[in-house]
Amino acid sequence: MAEDIILTEKTEGDIKTMWTKGLFGTEKPIIALLHLDPLPGDPDFCGSLDTVIEHASCDVKALQEGGVDGVLIANEFSFPMTYVSHAETLMAMACVIGAIKKDIHVPFGTNVVMNPEETIRMAKAVGASFGRSAFAGAFTGTYGVHVNNFGENVRLKYALGIPEMKLPKQIVARRISLMEREGVSFRTSCRVGQQISPEELAAQFDLVIFCCGAQQPRPLPFAETAGVFYALDYLRASAQSLLAQAEPAVTAAGKHVVLVGAGDSASDCISVALRQGCRSLTQLIRKPRTASTEKRDHAHEEAEAVFGADIRRYETQIERLVCGDDGSVNAVILQGSGEQLPCDLLLLASGFSGCEPASVDAYEAVRKTGVPALTAGDMASGVSLVVLAIASGKQAAAQADASLMGYTNIL
After folding, report:
1. Which of 75, 166, 264, 268 has the most other CB atoms within 10 Å of its CB?
2. Neighbouring C-beta atoms of residue 337, cutoff 10 Å
3. Which own/partner contact pairs does 139-142 have at CB distance under 8 Å and 24+ positions apart?
């Protein structure tokens, strides 16, 4: 049971579907296990990676012909198993999956046996939609007691930017519950300066750490037009609707979608728009086509599979919008060519300019009260990577500990 991914949650005897229906198209999917032959680095490796690929290709075709809804690919024959995966085995596993992806027509997942971190990395590398592993807690298995670091696994998942890499929500809720029992209070949808003033913060706490991310989008002239949304607002609305099991406030269903920008947020928008059932999808990229900008990820591969062509258009920008009688956008005019693209939903994923002014003002206001105020992540370094924000957060925690206690044991 330790390595089974949780597909549903039980509520008073009833089973409530979580994310499986959206991914597999059915509330009770049949997920087949594809166990790869021993890989390079495994003692029982046959000596030919082509043979491993051939067997895996035959297996995945047979499983799909049998009517399965999904396939989980695992290195179950990497005996003897270890908690530290060998590089040659991981590279070979990725190579095999890459070779058989053209034969896979259902959602597929990965499992690097006994290694949750490498399972997440493998999913990112090969474009998997889900994963199976013991992502949290301690368990006793074939090789004794083992403890997995849930926090590090979650951080890794977000650092790699894998919106489709599902982790059970019950585990997240359990982690929050444990932190609450340890004395941590969570106040969501609470903005400093609105729901609580900087002066109230200073009066209630001995030290304040501002970890406000760079959520201020790079401004564009037509951002206030009806039917135009910044990527983060669109993605947040989608996530909130899934959690509430309600219709999203903004949806791409049945719409012509134009996406401005590249990067992780843009790829997330592509994935969400495809799952919502957009009618068409075009991505406009300001930069020229190069080896760097041409690199595709799982979202672009999925979009090409749906629409039959690359959705990206390079060195292309919007000159102006065409709006209907109600003021909503219904087309965009491209610079230079004057070409008109149908557009019912325009998503802006052109980056962030920094932290929201209200967050910076609140930090300065707390400082003026004399209460120690620290910063971490984007508040300290400007727009940067998640992995750097994690390191910055640990550093701020050590500074706070030393300030309050006179010393710190935080490394």
Report:
1. 75
2. 9
3. 139/2, 141/2, 141/114, 142/81
Sign of CA dihedral 357, 360, 363, 365: negative
> CB count, 10 Å around CB of 126?
20
* 230/218 Cα distance (integer angstroms): 9
> 341 is written with which tokens?
């693209």
* Per-residue pLDDT tens digits for 31-68: 999 999 999 888 888 989 999 999 999 999 999 999 99
In sequence order, the 6+-apart residues with CB closer than 8 A to the CB of 122 are 90, 93, 94, 97, 110, 112, 128, 131
Kindly give, in sequence order, each residue whose CB lies less than 8 Å from that of residue 407, ignoring residues fewer than 6 positions away: 401
Other residues' Cβ atoms within 10 Å of the Cβ of residue 272: 26
- C-beta neighbour count of 143 within 10 angstroms: 11
Backbone angles phi, psi at 3, to 5 degrees: -105, 10
Per the prediction, the chain carries an average pLDDT of 81
The answer to whether residue 165 scores a pLDDT higher than 70 is no
Does residue 144 have a pLDDT over 60?
Answer: no
C-beta of residue 162 within 8 angstroms of C-beta of residue 124: yes
Instruction: Give tens-digit pLDDT for 387-410.
Output: 677 888 888 999 999 999 999 887
Using CA atoms, how far apart are residues 407 and 398, in angstroms rounded to an integer? 9
> How many other β-carbons are positioned within 10 Å of the β-carbon of residue 47?
8
